[in-house]
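Troubleshooting entry. The earlier prediction with acetyl coenzyme *A gave an output that would not parse, so I re-checked the input for stray whitespace and re-submitted. Clean input:
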Amino acid sequence: MTTELRVLRQTEWDAWYGQLELAFGGIPEAPEERSLWNDLTETERSLGVWDDGACVGTAGAFSFRLAVPGGSVVPAAGVTMVSVASTHRRRGILTSMMRRQLSDVRSGGEPLAVLTASEPAIYGRFGYGIGTQQMSLDIDTARVRLTVPEGTDGVRLRISDPVAAVERCEAVYARRVPVRPGMLARRPGWARLPVLDPESERAGASPLQCVLAERDGETVGYARYAVKPDWDAEGPKGIVQLRDLEALDPAAYAALWRHLFDLDLTSRLTTRNRPVDDPVLHLVSDVRRCSVRVRDGLHVRPVELGAALETRTYARPVDVVLDVSDPFCPWNEGRWRISGDAKGASCERTGDPAELALSVRELGAAFLGGVSLGALAGAGRVRELRQGALAEASGAFLGDVAPWLPHGF
Ligand SMILES: CC(=O)SCCNC(=O)CCNC(=O)[C@H](O)C(C)(C)COP(=O)(O)OP(=O)(O)OC[C@H]1O[C@@H](n2cnc3c(N)ncnc32)[C@H](O)[C@@H]1OP(=O)(O)O
């Protein structure tokens, strides 16, 4: 088999994207969704694999800016639209695209690559670690009560058209980004994503709705959701399907949740993607009736290891020599001294004796501050070579906010 791997040409997008749709089951996307991804595709960063004129492999990358511990927002390649034709699987095409892509990301100067995986088992071999988790909830709002903080009654709620309210929501979102590692600063064109609402994907639910939280005329929060009506012999049992919710203070936050809990003719609230430390878990009367489930979120790969570890700050002072293995990107292999604190860090090559041994994948997992190196050591994935080095590094890497990505890409 001779296949050609090369950068996508603009005129090839339809065939390229068609291959991706086929790999995901073959149901064509709604026209507005397809058009959004067409506009957002960075053609010069997209790879295609071709066999006798047919597209058999796809992989794209977005030029993101990622929030990291300490509040900086740094360049990161957002790996996306990965597929291989069913006729060409398990022959190494994905591996060849990943190799080329990571090499391109390195040449372009981005220290990190990130992705959300269709299946979590695929990307570890390429050096990606699971850096964030996301929580889904299915809340019995007929039984669960909320205890809201002082000031909640002073928040004014206003129903708004989601598209008309986008700018106000985006202003709130932008203020949340540096506070929560894992969030992405919105790039031009991306504000269309949270209000994308194809009728064909509503499955009996309402069009997207939006409620704004306001104080003194300023927007201090928003929630976007749909309502799926449901009735049985006992009466109405509608479901509130929460898509996203952000707020700038606890009272606005609680007011939005209370609004969603109290919607007439509903008795359930579902949401697929909340941070695992979502304060709502501390507002509810009965966490068991919230059906909490957790899954992997953003997978993180340090591409240029030293530069990546220098972009963030560290919760406690750390000065540890890491012995890093990275067979897929061998330029990262070897010993690095990470030395930093809450103000900043340096990470440079060293000839000093190694104090912790681990692979780049563990550093990707720990990078955003949500996964403990101590826990990874418990699984045998980090080895302590100098007594005390594990506790020192583990405490330094951990953050006080669970990293989280609110949306897929
Ligand atoms: C960021 C994103 O876009 S996520 C979307 C990923 N795409 C999809 O899930 C669409 C459907 N699946 C596919 O298109 C393909 O099966 C892909 C892209 C997942 C894999 O492509 P392939 O060309 O078959 O992978 P390749 O041959 O390079 O396999 C490399 C290794 O990964 C393993 N692997 C591939 N897919 C999977 C999987 N789904 N689960 C576990 N391991 C996998 C292979 O077994 C192989 O392992 P080995 O080196 O030990 O033999």
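This one parsed fine. The CA atoms of residues 168 and 219 lie 6 Å apart.
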